[in-house]
Amino acid sequence: MNPNPQSTLLRIAHALDPIAIRSGRISAWLIIPMVLSLSYEVVARYLFNAPTLWAYDMTFMLYGSFFMLGAAFTLQRKGHIRTDSLYANWSPRRQAWVDIVCYAVMFMPFVAIFLWAGWGYFWKAFTTGERFVSSPWQPITWPFKMVMPLTGLLLAIQGVSELCKSLDAAITGRWADKHESVVEHVLQEVQEVIS
């Protein structure tokens, strides 16, 4: 017996979702070196009058990476902003069709451009040994710029997953997956870590 289109779409989505979940969990760990480098800078500057050359640069690179690499996880958890005052009152089928159009017309083209442009920025920085000239430390830029195409790739993968879920909802008239909000998810993970 051949699987129906809905189950195939959801199998694809469920195969892709763990990529965003794992990348979100991994990128969440970037908060630790970011806070440590910022704390070190504050202590060194204000207690010992010995500011560092590297802490500010490290902090903004880690924060930018943390913010960008978490985007696919946030998409998977339905944490991005949308006008829910209208959307929430629509039927699942209408919600799904709006999502399909938005993913196909706005999201995927933007992500493709972001991935392509991000790769160009990364590759130029990598091949030329580019450095941040605005900093006395002058760190190399390619590790930071590598985050741009990686973020584009992660968003594209999660966008395909969300598109599959939307197509399934358009066909069946119901959402197969109801995810908890990002806040509920974070609270649940914190409780798991504590216990």
Give structural notes.
The protein has 195 residues and is mainly α. It has one domain (5-194). The chain has nine helices and no strands. It has helices at residues 5-28, 31-46, 55-69, 71-76, 84-87, 92-128, 142-145, 147-172, 182-194. Helix 1 runs antiparallel to helix 8 and helix 6 packs antiparallel against helix 8 (147-172). It starts with a helix and ends with a helix. The mean pLDDT is 89.
Could you provide a short overview of the structure?
With 195 residues, the chain is an all-alpha fold. It is 74% helix and 0% strand.
Oligomeric state as shown: single chain
Write the H/E string, N to C.
HHHHHHHHH
Query: How many helix segments?
Result: 9
Strand content: under 5%
Beta strands, count: 0
Shape assignment:
elongated
Over all CA atoms, what is the radius of gyration? 20 Å
How far apart the termini lie comes to: 45 Å
Helix content: over 70%
Q: Give the overall pLDDT as a whole number.
A: 89
Quick one: biggest sheet? none
Please, how many domains?
Answer: 1
Q: How is this fold's topology laid out?
A:
Elements: H1 5-28, H2 31-46, H3 55-69, H4 71-76, H5 84-87, H6 92-128, H7 142-145, H8 147-172, H9 182-194
Helix pairs in contact: 1-8, 2-3, 6-8
Offer a few descriptive terms:
elongated, mainly alpha, single chain, 195 residues, 74% helix
